[in-house]
Amino acid sequence: MKGAYWVQGAAAAALLLGSSVALAQQDGQGQGGTQEDMLAEEGGVLGGLRPGSTERIGAGTAFNPSISVILDGVYKNTFSGDAHEPGGFVAGHDHGHGHGHAHGMEEGFQLRETEFAFEASVDPYFDAFAMLVIEGTDTVDLEEAYFTTTSLPWGLQIKGGRFLSDIGYINRQHAHEWDFVDRPLVSEYLFGDHGLQDTGVQLNWLLPTRTYLKAGVEVLQGETSGIATFEGEMDVRPEWIVSEPDGSNPRRERTDAQDLPFDDASGPRLFTSFLKWGPDLGFDHAAQFGISGGYARAFQRMDEHSQGLRVETWDGDAWFAGVDAVYKYDGGGYLGQGDLTLQGEYFYRNIDTDFSYFNHEDANEWERGTAAADGTSGRFQQDGAYLQAVYGIAPRWRTGVRAEALGIAKNQAWHDRDEGNGFADFDTSYRYSLNTTFYPSHFSYLRAQVNLADFASDDPSNGDRHDEWSFMLQYNLSLGAHGAHPF
Amino acid sequence: MMPKRTILTGLLSAALAVAPAAQALDIAATTSNMGMLAKHVGGEHVDVTTMAPPDRDAHFLEARPSMMAAIRGADLVVSVGAELEDGWLPAAIRGANNPGVRAGQSGYFEAAAQVELLGGGGPADRSRGDVHPAGNPHVYLDPIRMGEVAEALAGRLANKDAANAETYESNARAFAERAEEHVAQWRESVDGAPGVVLYHADATYLLERLGVPDLDYLEPVPGVPPTGSHLRSLIRDLEGQDGVIIRYPYQREDHAQFVAEQLGWEYYTLMNGVEIGGDADDYFALLEQWVEALRSPLD
Q1: Which residues, 6 or more positions from B160, have their beta carbon under 8 angstroms from its beta carbon?
Q2: Do A96 and A220 share a structural domain?
Q3: Is residue B89 within 8 angstroms of chain A, CB to CB?
Q4: What is the reported pLDDT for A184?
Q5: Domain check: are A41 and A93 in the same one?
Q6: pLDDT in tens, B146-204
Q7: How many domains does chain A have?
Q8: Helices B32-42 and B143-160: crossing angle, nearest 10°?
Q9: A chain contacts of residue B99, beta-carbon cutoff 8 Å
Q10: Between residues A257 and B226, the one the model is more confident about
């Protein structure tokens, strides 16, 4: 039998070869006719021999990574008030990097995030994962691109590349895994718009204990805005426009170069560690408790003010520490009914910076100072927390409540100096959220959420506090082969 | 250099100190049925941890720290497979830092990979629900297939622990023989049974084995809960026929009850897995309950 197939195959191959020659000839004569027509004609001549498969034999797409696309759209309406930004956190929040006011959500319809995830084994030694996120329609963020080792002994694993740090609980989750539409304030304002997202390596160790105990350290480049922002050694030559007294003949002038006194801390500059413990509580209950912290050996910022030709610098270091806990009750009800999840995190951040300013009165020399009306050196401490509960009110329906606070024990903004000699210590900002999510299947959900923001003012001359009520509708759809999530 | 080496040595010795002496093979089983089978085949030479309880839908679990801890030290992960545990097992294995139990390694064992699957080849299109184009994963209720799985598992255990190969083989054979005896007897006892309506196509292998028709499902498509219109059309289709309805404790009772009342049938609440730590006797007793329910319209 095999032999017969082989002969047939060879005949078909010969036929194909012949027909393509014929096709070329026909093309030369400027005549139409498809290859199939001709194959059929010749087939007639050759007495019913099939032309054979035109498939190219190979692994095809089988080696491609599993691909998933996650669509996420939000409608937002702020129907009462305007909370502005939480007091004490304005400049630390990607102020100078083009992210603009209140990162994330605008009023009305928006494609918040479209996530493209790719995942595959590389070889027997590595797995790799990459996720590209398109924010809105035109901003691409390489959310993650990392490898993990798959063959290290003793419960060890190395992760390398760009990844979401394993500090805390929600930090490593992508937006589609959240139980609320928006990122917790503590994650957004203490770390950054993407949490602690950085480039480097992680070593983690799952201890050989009967209960789950995982320890890890990360060595990161230090590019996360809230905790490890970096400027590096540089000099500035601001320019200004001069003109004749009647406004004619405008021209640019530049100052002399001024060297800015940043320590040139080469990377890696951010070091974190974490410990997670998951006691075995049987099949109905599960919990995980974590502690984590980190040290950034450079926390550097520069603000250039064109008015008065002034440059301000902050140069120092920063550290953070936090605790996180999550508890899940699996009630065994139909499609999640009766299930409960409790989740909370607290983080504390300490920034030590030396402030300098450099004034340049037009053509005069640079003049350096170390205290000014809007900047000072010192130790700046801020913290934040959230606590949330999500309950399965019916099969496929979950309702969640979340309470958040920012600047609880301390709220000292490194970029803001008080009228007196000290620096401003702002009030605590709060936010409360209530939502309901419907899961038509495992691959989609629809969510409605109401937020009440009660923020301390960042500018006390403009009122002490600001309230805001907003309403959000979200859809989230998962296409393709999206893998399971860790706890 | 010195401090680094000291730390590394410290870590290594700590790891070695706590590692259990390699006596019994450590097995992390996904469902209680797989735990039962692993224990039956391995006997005293294996320690089995079951990760999913029988009163939960194994489709819908979540990876948990306790699962990762179990897999961390396992010599072998025994799962039903064919994507049944896809929502949690891959994540649990990934989080367990145990290279030996990754798919493709000798520490990874899927029951579905050892037997012939039914219902494969459909379109990979989720508008048809939670479809499994590779085949129906629910092989665990067919005792004959479980016997084949037991024999494959015995081979795997022997591969890891050659000294007890004969024990594994004879344990597996005992299970397979017992399954054959039971099935011969059960086939007779359910002969002429009109069929069953389930929530989900998860007893297909048992029904096919016993020659009992799988009449319909309460779910309109796999993984999607029953709708009123689907139940009405199901009742219309089955009106005048005889049969039974079987549900699991984690599935809603009102749907089953409604359809049963409309059709004048009985409905039963059964398990599809043994209790944690259950043995082969419990497994065959469980199937006995299924047989009783299936043949009940004949009485």
Answers
A1: B25, B75, B76, B106
A2: yes
A3: yes
A4: 96
A5: no
A6: 999 999 999 999 999 999 999 999 999 999 999 999 999 999 999 999 999 999 999 99
A7: 2
A8: 50
A9: 150-153
A10: B226
Partner B contacted by A61 (CB < 8 A): no
User: Same domain for A224 and A109?
Assistant: yes
pLDDT along chain A (487 residues), means of 10: 47 45 43 46 50 70 86 94 85 42 75 92 93 91 96 96 97 95 95 94 95 97 90 82 82 81 86 97 96 95 77 91 97 90 97 86 72 73 96 96 94 67 77 97 94 87 86 95 82
CB B153 within 8 A of CB B78: yes
pTM, 2 dp: 0.84
The answer to whether the Cβ–Cβ distance between B56 and A283 falls below 8 Å is: yes
Q: Residues A7, A87: one domain?
A: no
Domains and CATH numbers, chain B: 17-181 (3.40.50.1980), 192-298 (3.40.50.1980)
Chain A hits for B55, Cβ within 8 Å: 332
Distance (Å) from the alpha carbon of B232 to chain A's nearest alpha carbon: 20
Cα separation values, B81 from A381, B53, B58, Å? 51, 16, 11
B192 reaches A (C-beta below 8 A): no
* Structural domain harbouring A40: 2-45
- Which residue of B62, B72, B249 is in closest CB contact with A206? B72
Search chain A and give the residue with CA nearest B60.
Answer: A335
Residue B254, chain A, CB below 8 Å: the answer is no
| Residue A227 resides in a domain | yes
Which CATH number goes with the domain that contains A407?
A: 2.40.160.10
B89/A208 Cβ within 8 A: no
Question: Is the torsion defined by CA of B128, B130, B134, B137 positive or negative?
Answer: negative
Q: Is A210 on the interface with B (CB under 8 A)?
A: yes
pLDDT value at residue A4:
46
> What does the angle CA B105 – CA B108 – CA B113 come to, to the nearest 5 degrees?
110
Q: In what order do the strands lie in the sheet with B214-217?
A: B214-217, B196-198, B244-247, B266-269
Residue B129 forms contact with A (CB below 8 Å): yes
- Please give the pLDDT value at position A447: 98
- Shared domain check, A455 and A388: yes
- Least CA distance to B254: which residue of chain A? A334
